[in-house]
TrEMBL record:
This is High-affinity iron transporter. It comes from the Bacteria. The chain crosses the membrane at residues 6-30, 60-83, 89-109, 121-142, 154-175, 187-207, 245-263. Keywords: Membrane, Transmembrane, Transmembrane helix. The keyword Membrane applies. The keyword Cytoplasm does not apply.
Length: 279
């Protein structure tokens, strides 16, 4: 139960921590550009006092969005059986698809806007939308654990998982914050969003909208989907040990489209900066 708790916690919460790190790095980068200050490389010691350096209200908005997502996910968990009976038994899956689409849209629009306030609201919305399905799944698992009363194993697993997720989030922010260039962050965000969007393929196969096909290869002997490394790479780059053709097509096309949109924003940003109208 300890290992299961650890893996499930990482699976459901790591995307939230990764997104938080990316959003903070993105927002921090453009706050520094707006202030026309060069991004200086800092030592780990001096950086520790400056981690996730943003205006205070940005963190408040982000954290409030996460807590609101947790509250609403508790409600979704309570009505989940009812949702599962609507729309000929696919109601909950339809909700998941809509949440995923709205999540990707909110992150994209937040990234391509030059307005700081709009970006803050949209990034908060994206965190809120991402928390809903993942927190609901973990609550279902936690409710089942309460029935067998294995509290100590779950608490230890959650504590270890929280430490791992916090460490990964801090490391990602540290890396992208000190690069001083937006291109690596844009590529990482494009791959991350494409991976989240590609999860829709699995949902559509579960409700028989897409037919399940044979995987093109199997890399479970190297990195299994069920272990912590598989989950880590699945969150970061959409890794799947047994990918189907449709999954790879959706993942590749989504990455290309999202990255193109973000690079298009680079051109717009450059023109706006030249005339001094970046807000």
């Amino acid at each position: 139960m300890l290992i299961n708790s650890l893996l499930i916690f990482i699976e459901e919460t790591l995307p939230i921590f990764v997104l938080y790190a990316y959003l903070c790095a993105w927002h921090s980068y453009f706050e520094y550009r707006k202030e026309t200050k060069p991004v200086k490389t800092k030592s780990i010691g001096s950086f520790a006092g400056e981690v996730f350096k943003l205006k205070q209200d940005h963190h408040i908005y982000f954290i409030c969005a996460i807590f609101l997502g947790l509250l609403l996910s508790a409600f979704i968990t309570s009505v989940r059986p009812w949702l599962g009976m609507t729309l000929d038994g696919i109601g909950y899956e339809v909700v998941l698809i809509l949440l995923a689409l709205c999540f990707v849209a909110s992150v994209l629009v937040g990234q391509i806007t030059n307005n700081s306030s709009t970006r803050k609201v949209l990034f908060s919305l994206s965190l809120f939308l991402l928390v809903l399905p993942h927190a609901s799944d973990f609550m279902v698992f936690f409710a089942s654990v309460l029935q067998v009363q294995l509290y100590s194993s779950v608490y230890v697993g959650v504590s270890i998982g929280l430490g791992i997720c916090l460490s990964i989030s801090y490391l990602l922010f540290f890396v992208f914050r000190n690069m001083g260039k937006s291109l690596p962050l844009k590529l990482a965000m494009a791959i991350f969003l494409a991976g989240q969007l590609s999860n829709i393929v699995t949902i559509l196969q579960q409700i028989d909208v897409l037919s399940s096909s044979l995987p093109l290869w199997n890399t479970n002997r190297f990195i299994a989907d069920s272990n912590e490394y598989g989950q880590f790479f699945h969150v970061l780059v959409g890794y799947d040990a047994t990918p189907t053709l449709i999954y790879l097509v959706i993942l590749s096309a989504s990455t290309l489209i999202i990255f193109t949109l973000l690079m298009r924003f680079k051109l717009i940003e450059g023109k706006s900066t030249a005339f001094g109208v970046v807000q």
